[in-house]
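User: I'm putting together a teaching handout on how sequence relates to shape, and I'd like one worked example. Could you take DUF218 domain-containing protein from Indibacter alkaliphilus, show the sequence you're using, and then write out its predicted structure as tokens right after it?

Assistant: Happy to. First the sequence, then the structure tokens directly below it.
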Amino acid sequence: MLAWEPNFKPFVNLPEYELGIVLTGVTNLSKTAYDRTFFDKGADRVTHAIQLYKLGKIKKILITGGQGLNPVNTNTEAEWLRDVMLLAEIPAEDILIENQAKNTYQNAVLAKETLEIAGYRPDQEHLLITSAFHMRRAKGCFDKVGLRTVTFPVDYYTHDIKIDIPNLLYPDPKSMATWHTLFKEWIGITVYKIAGYI
């Protein structure tokens, strides 16, 4: 995973972008509460987007994502994430919503349509915000549909390499879950290539 995930980008070195595109897939839609957002792993996608906005690195945010494949909750992920951003005092007029996408390829297709309707130029470059392990597939999909993006990976599974007794001697129960995530992503990329999505 350490070799797979791209390096993070310091805020200070980042130029300003008109728009940041946030991919969903980070909430627990199996909970039926309607007065809060339950996050799974991946909440960095939201918190870093808020930081980028507050730092003036992005002027507006497009959140793309619907209900997934088997939802229990009737709200969409894009709406849940918008609610969190509103709590962080990001003005509603600076948040665009695409709430129909069910997978990464649809994120790209429908984000492009949403931006075209909103009057964004096709040659504009946007900041793509998603998990580091997922960035290659996401970037490939956005490139395929002709939407120009610069990557901003977040939500890392890895940490800096440490050579110490705990890391050398104690097994890490999270390792199997990390391998599962990585293999699933590799399978996803293979399927997307076969389908012509990237």
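A couple of points you could highlight for students: The domain at 11-195 is CATH 3.40.50.620 (Rossmann fold). The CA atoms of residues 60 and 67 lie 23 Å apart.
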